[in-house]
């Protein structure tokens, strides 16, 4: 049974949760602008990290696929989806985390085998690949054979069920049809990216790619109106703060709310607050 059968979500409609009696100050390391669930990695915004490999805590996506790795939170949420939908026999992981050298090899091999036009549509350059973050997973419908670059993941059946359920666990279809000019990548129905909840839900409701969502969040600065969202269990409040703003003021939030901080890999941080209803 779908664990979100009674799910609902709405944007706005409640007072700010950034008001409280007991407050605390958030501490930022500017280097962390290049890490977090909402980092934007594409042709214009390459990975910036020491030794050219993105520093994440990696685990296998399951004992049946020990060599396919993901960020540990993304892997946990992927496992939850697979358990809810009983996907172990219907959908298989194809590719997760890749080192820079692996991405370079895949890109070079595709150039030789498939040519420039195909490769530029479906394979990211080294340091421009989400797979190097550990937050991206390619999936395939379970068949005897599948294409590593373009695995079959149709818009029907169990694959469509996964696509819908994944949103409630923080995953988005990263390269949707009709958004090629925005993402710079052809439609990839098999490529899913962990951005965390409730960002996945908001992006789906507003039909936004990650590129568009990162721009959208700049409408909700720390010292201004915040983006508010709620579901059956939690209130969420989301805001953006630039590096230049951080140099001028501290970020103060209530002590009794949970907080996630993500860099955007460009110019600032996205703060997500959560509080029980």
Estimated structural class: alpha+beta
Intertermini distance: 24 Å
Question: Can you list the strand order of the major beta sheet?
Answer: 1-9-10-13-12
Radius of gyration over all CA atoms, rounded: 19 Å
What is the residue-mean pLDDT, rounded to a whole number?
91
Q: List the total number of helices.
A: 8
Report the major sheet. 5 strands, antiparallel
Strand content: 15-25%
Helix and strand succession? EEEEHEHHEHEHEHHEEHEEE
Tally of strands: 13
- So what's the overall shape? globular
Low-confidence blocks of residues: 1-7
Assign a percent range to the helix content.
25-40%
Annotation keywords:
277 residues, alpha+beta, 5-stranded antiparallel sheet, 4-stranded antiparallel sheet, 13 strands, 25% helix, 25% strand
Description:
Strands 1-9-10-13-12 form a 5-stranded antiparallel β-sheet. Strands 5-6-8-7 form a 4-stranded antiparallel β-sheet. It has a two-stranded antiparallel ribbon with strand order 2-11. The chain has helices at 72-85, 100-114, 116-122, 157-166, 180-183, 199-206, 210-217, 243-246; strands spanning 9-11, 23-26, 58-60, 69-71, 91-95, 136-141, 171-175, 188-194, 227-231, 234-242, 251-254, 258-263, 268-276. It contains 8 helices and 13 strands. Helix content is 25%, strand content 25%. The protein starts with 8 loop residues before the first strand and ends with a strand. The protein is of the alpha+beta class and 277 residues long.
């Amino acid at each position: 049974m779908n664990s979100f059968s009674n799910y609902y979500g709405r944007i706005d409609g409640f007072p700010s949760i950034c008001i409280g009696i007991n407050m605390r100050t958030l501490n930022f390391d500017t280097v962390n602008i290049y890490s977090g669930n909402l980092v934007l990695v594409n042709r214009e915004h390459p990975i910036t990290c020491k030794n050219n490999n993105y520093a994440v805590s990696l685990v296998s996506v399951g004992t049946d696929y020990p060599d396919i790795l993901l960020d540990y939170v993304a892997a946990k949420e992927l496992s939850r989806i697979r358990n809810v939908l009983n996907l172990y026999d219907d959908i298989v992981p194809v590719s997760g985390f890749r080192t820079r050298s692996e991405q370079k090899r895949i890109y070079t091999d595709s150039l030789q085998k498939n040519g420039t036009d195909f490769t530029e549509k479906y394979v990211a350059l080294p340091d421009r690949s989400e797979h190097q973050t550990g937050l991206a997973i390619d999936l395939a419908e379970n068949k005897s054979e599948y294409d590593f670059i373009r695995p079959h993941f149709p818009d029907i059946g169990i694959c469509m069920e996964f696509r819908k359920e994944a949103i409630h666990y923080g995953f988005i279809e990263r390269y949707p049809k009709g958004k090629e000019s925005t993402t710079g990548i052809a439609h990839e129905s098999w490529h899913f990216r962990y951005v965390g909840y409730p960002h996945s839900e908001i992006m789906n409701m507003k039909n936004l790619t990650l590129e568009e969502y990162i721009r959208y969040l700049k409408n909700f600065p720390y010292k201004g109106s915040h983006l508010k969202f709620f579901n059956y269990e939690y209130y969420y409040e989301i805001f953006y703060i630039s590096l230049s703003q951080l140099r001028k003021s501290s970020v103060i939030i209530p002590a009794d709310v949970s907080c996630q901080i993500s860099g955007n890999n460009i110019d600032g941080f996205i703060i997500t607050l959560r509080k029980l209803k």
